[in-house]
């Protein structure tokens, strides 16, 4: 393929997605369903990394698409749709997690999310990084995922999570230290 062919194909995909977005904005449920099918994997993956829990991630993913249906008109096209959706997903997932935390704490009588048992259940080779990340305390996990995996700057994370930039950096450092310890790198 030539560069010109690649450019033409990329423009066609962009135009197709733009048509889907505009149709969904106009209430076309089939167009929205197509967007859902295209992006549910990305949305669920980010929700799962932030929450560390499959059922909560599924619920948060559905919340993302419910909110997306209601607020699709807010997409201005300044960036790729996937980039915008990624940011929307992170914000909704964090908000959803805050709402769920109160319910989970009442349900399980948890005083502090740091009361997670951090004892390794096997050797470092038995568990992949995602399993270790799921075991991180909530704030450390959120910051670690957003910074190390998703590439957000600490200033952005601080804004998204309503914490100070220094707290974001401290939580990231804490997450790295715990992961090193659990994986046997200390």
Automatic annotation (TrEMBL):
Q: Gene3D superfamilies from the xrefs?
A: 1.10.1740.10, Winged helix-like DNA-binding domain superfamily/Winged helix DNA-binding domain
One GO biological process term is:
DNA-templated transcription initiation
Which molecular function term from Gene Ontology is one that the record holds?
sigma factor activity
Per the UniProt entry, the signal peptide is none
Q: Which key words tag this protein in UniProt?
A: Sigma factor, Transcription, Transcription regulation
**One Pfam family per UniProt:** Sigma70_r2
All copies of the RNA polymerase sigma factor 70 region 4 type domain together span 128-179
Domain of life per record: Bacteria
Can you give the residue ranges of the RNA polymerase sigma-70 region domain? Answer: 35-101
Q: Which PANTHER family match?
A: RNA POLYMERASE ECF-TYPE SIGMA FACTO (PTHR43133), RNA POLYMERASE SIGMA-70 FACTOR ECF SUBFAMILY (PTHR43133:SF46)
Record-stated family: Belongs to the sigma-70 factor family. ECF subfamily.
UniProt protein name: RNA polymerase sigma factor
Species of the source: Neptunicella marina
């Amino acid at each position: 393929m030539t560069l010109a062919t690649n450019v033409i194909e990329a423009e066609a995909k962009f135009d197709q997605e733009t048509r889907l977005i505009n149709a969904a904005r106009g209430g076309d449920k089939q167009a929205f369903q197509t967007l859902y099918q295209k992006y549910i994997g990305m949305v669920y993956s980010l929700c799962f990394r932030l929450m560390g829990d499959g059922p909560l991630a599924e619920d948060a993913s559905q919340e993302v698409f419910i909110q997306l249906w209601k607020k699709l008109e807010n997409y201005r096209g300044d960036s790729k749709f996937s980039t915008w959706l990624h940011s929307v997903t992170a914000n909704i997932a964090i908000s959803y997690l805050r709402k769920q935390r109160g319910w989970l704490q009442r349900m399980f009588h948890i005083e502090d999310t740091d009361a997670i048992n951090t004892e390794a259940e096997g050797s470092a080779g038995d568990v992949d990084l995602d399993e270790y990340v799921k075991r991180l305390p909530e704030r450390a996990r959120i910051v670690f995922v957003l910074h190390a995996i998703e590439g957000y700057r600490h200033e952005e994370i601080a804004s998204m999570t309503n914490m100070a930039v220094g707290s974001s950096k401290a939580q990231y450092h804490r997450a790295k230290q715990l992961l090193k310890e659990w994986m046997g790198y200390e």
